[in-house]
């Protein structure tokens, strides 16, 4: 096992990883930008190093500075969290070249899985069905030609990255012509890769993802599905597990298919396979995320397994100590993403308590919420024996959560949870249309 790990991230996920390391007896190294000098993650770590100005490209995206901090501190491994360098194969290679373990998949495999069109090829021959679409397109002319053959409506998507960047819904060739240069520019800026492809539009549908955990010996377990259908502009707001739209028979079939695909790929660590579930009950494979997900606490609450600890263990070569048959998923877990609607300085903070209520955050009184980074400031997660009880518990926790000095989306989350579609479980990706 590692004796010292550097966390190449900030905010709530850096705090989350540092806490897991402390519980494992592992020393921690934090990196921070000048804007995060007084941040909680920098204070909690055993060592901390400033890596540059506030702008992410000069700090948290600067692999050379992060590697320098790792070498100076004597860290044996780097945990990238999510976002920033978590899916950067070049950075992972540099870690390995410098004798440091990158807590994530092999760089070559990461590169292949990060290319969404290549990923679909990798699952060919398994029971998973990719959404029909194209490979990477050479330009607008080819895109128009392939679109005509596939038939509208279509989705224009980025080969690399995530977070909804570059995604466009297209109803016609005219819309494709208008969207193409904008999507290329957006993806080139966000991911350093402007490559795009087309996919058939599956609608209406639920967004379902399956959490997996695999070790170097080829053992794979699926830790249940999460329903991520409450989204606005491809940004997730609420997640729950299990999905009210997935039956036990569907869950068993999806588990078998995902296990088969993960073993074929030869993946190690934590990962997530993402699907669209259409009205006919068919799952359509979209992509695989090769990192820890923002919503991982939902699965942790449901299974009582610490995914961050197991991510670290599998990176160190530790085999899984349980099989698929030993994974118990009873009850219901839900998460609300709490975001800042504008920068500001936190005044009073009151965190809700109670049985199986968890708030992952980096907030402490007086902290400045910066305009330089993602507006996510916390995640409120609950677990209960039934879905109905989980909804009530999450609403009660939201009512108790007090964040003064920073405008947040707490009110909106309460309205969504109180609406009939969510309360009944009869919702899909159309829920937030027009809101």
Walk me through the structure.
β4, α4 and β5 (101-102) form a beta-alpha-beta unit. The radius of gyration is 21 Å and the shape is globular. The N and C termini lie far apart (48 Å). The protein has 14 helices and 20 strands. The model has no long low-confidence stretch (mean pLDDT 96). An 8-stranded antiparallel β-sheet has the order 13-12-9-10-11-14-19-17. It has a 5-stranded parallel β-sheet with strand order 3-2-1-4-5, sandwiched between helices. The protein has a 3-stranded antiparallel β-sheet with strand order 7-6-8, with helices on one face. With 435 residues, the chain is an alpha+beta fold. α4 packs antiparallel against α5 (107-114) and α7 (140-150) crosses α8 (173-191). The chain is 34% helix and 25% strand.
Strand order of the largest sheet: 13-12-9-10-11-14-19-17
Secondary structure: number of strands: 20
Low-confidence stretches: none
- Based on secondary structure, the structural category is alpha+beta
Number of helices: 14
Overall morphology:
globular
Please tell me the overall pLDDT: 96
- Fraction of residues in H or I helices: 25-40%
Strand fraction: 25-35%
- N-to-C span: 48 Å
Sheet with most strands: 8 strands, antiparallel
Q: What Rg is obtained from the alpha carbons, in whole angstroms?
A: 21 Å
